[in-house]
Write a structure and sequence with these properties.
Blueprint: H1 6-17, E1 22-26, E2 49-52, H2 59-69, H3 73-80, E3 82-83, E4 88-91, H4 93-106, E5 110-114, E6 128-130, H5 138-148, E7 153-159, E8 162-164, E9 174-175, E10 191-196, H6 198-210, H7 232-237, E11 265-271, E12 278-281, H8 290-297, E13 308-310, E14 313-319, H9 322-325, E15 331-332, E16 335-340, H10 350-368, H11 381-392, H12 434-459
Parallel strand pairs: 1-5, 6-16
Antiparallel strand pairs: 2-4, 3-4, 7-14, 8-12, 8-13, 9-10, 10-11, 11-12, 15-16
Length: 466
Amino acid sequence: MIGAGLAGSEAAWQAAESGCKVVLHEMRPTRMTEAHRTDQLAELVCSNSFRSDDAANNAVGLLHAEMRKLGSLIMRSADANQVPAGGALAVDRDGFSAAVTSALNAHPNIEIHRGEIADLPPGDWTNVIIATGPLTSAPLADAIREMTDENALAFFDAIAPIVHKDTIDMSVAWFQSRYDKVGPGGTGADYINCPMTKQRYDAFVDALLAGEKTEFKEWETSTPYFDGCLPIEVMAERGRETLRHGPMKPVGLTNPHDPTVKPYAVVQLRQDNKLGTLYNMVGFQTKLKYGPQQQIFRTIPGLEKAEFARLGGLHRNTFLNSPKLLDTQLRLRVQPRLRFAGQMTGCEGYVESASIGLIAGLYAAADTRGASIAPPPATTAVGALLGHITGGHIETLADQDTRSFQPMNVNFGLFPPLASAPTRKPDGSRLRGSEKTVAKKQAMSARALFDLDRWISDHLRVPAAA
């Protein structure tokens, strides 16, 4: 295994739990990346949120549930280190990575080697998973590119700032989750909310547009952003109201300091560590330079005296044209001894990356035993995501053109349709309007969990406990 981020760590765990001996290579701290700060395995470099944990109504929550059924180390460590976040599963980032590191260090089937793999693995490495992520070191990325004769695609990803909680003015801000929703480990009052009037909002947008940004190198100018993690100033460029309908939407919130006045926009901060001393600015990933960041973000009501534990940043991510380069078992077509996993395969998000690592680990372990595993059903979240990466995307293109392949979060649009969509409630009354959408998602989730249980029973030697 090369790379001990979320995907590599999960792959190593799954293979080791299957009885295989695993050597896990991680270049940090010998060589650091532009985004990492520690030598811990599975370090979270962006948000501390694993997003929705609602398995009945949300595709990523369903993926959480499936990974738990499959004995995921990443989900076990996340659950053990959760912090309040409304309906989301957020974690203490240091506690989470420490838990993953400890578990891998303690596993009798895993050896961890620190140091960079700067070229293709030696030919006598016959069963390899490369999970070096979007920040793959340049020498290895160049070697992969040369071997595949394929220009790697790339996109920019941005990091949100983190604020010391005790520097937030709580006489202006308040605790509340949207619609008072209670999530894992939460109370319904899990976010700090900073309200804005229309005048303050307009001035804030003007400042974002005018603020000095990180300059791109010449070779970076054509690199696109991933839409799921746009810098806040790029969102502002798309229209003055974009932020009010995105990360700064004021819906489901009431300001207890002035309950008769509805905020025009709201900035939310989410707990980032177990102690509750650090909060990250939700959706505020940015490419603003450090000076303008502090100046502009301190114009937000409640953050006038904010002290930042970390400012936002920008890094360039790379990913493979996976439908063209990889087979259904995540093996490189031109050199099948090499299997790829995680974000570099073209999935986006922590749990998505880890889930592909999980499947890659199971595939590699089966190869070691001289066996094979059928892909998980396309009706499951992990199966639908795998299909997007390994060819499901191509089937939607009449000309079989893989050039438009882009990273994607798990979503119900990747799932095959239901044989028969629900039309009635349990009491027999007819579903109407948005009720149909909710019922459809719940039916797809129920189908996924049923099909996954059957796949585990049929294809995995020892079914994992739910």
